[in-house]
Amino acid sequence: MTDESTMTTIAPRGLPQKLNGLLHLLDYIPHDLIALISRISIGAVFWQSGQTKVDGWRVAETAVYLFETEYRLPFINPWLAAHLAAFAEHFFPALLVIGFASRLSALALLVMTLVIEIFLYPDAWPTHGTWAVCFLVIIAGGPGRVSMDYFIARYFSRTA
């Protein structure tokens, strides 16, 4: 005869315990990986958008036309807006991908996303929300150890 306490110790784990164990494994996904994927993926989105605004090394006339007719941002000249957008959509994603000035770059692109959401495409909030999460991961948690920011900070912490 076996008593009840012995049976509970050798009984197979139930489904809730197994699911909890599997969910616990997700705690081991490193922030470094999440930040790297966030930086590269959102950087690619903005880089590709920037590519549609340039013709070689110049801002395309079609980009200026788009800012004159469809975008029509308040308080800014369409020519200047097209040039600033083309610059920002190349400069900040490049910094994000290499992980240099990552938090600042993510913040700049988050502000750009807010402008797009508020003034251009307010119905696209699900897409812009997804972008915002990528930026907030980097702003709040940093770019991770696979970044120039990490290596620069590590260098200066050694010399201090």
Describe the structure.
By secondary structure, the chain is mainly alpha-helical. Helix 3 crosses helix 7. It has 8 helices and 2 strands; from the N terminus they run αααββααααα. Strands 1-2 form a two-stranded antiparallel sheet. Strand 1 and strand 2 form a beta hairpin. It has one domain. It is 74% helix and 2% strand.
What's the quick description here?
This is DoxX family protein. With 160 residues, the protein is an all-alpha fold. It has one domain.
What are the defining features of this structure?
2% strand, 160 residues, globular, 8 helices, mainly alpha
Low-confidence stretches: none
Count of DSSP-assigned helices: 8
Termini separation:
69 Å
Radius of gyration: 23 Å
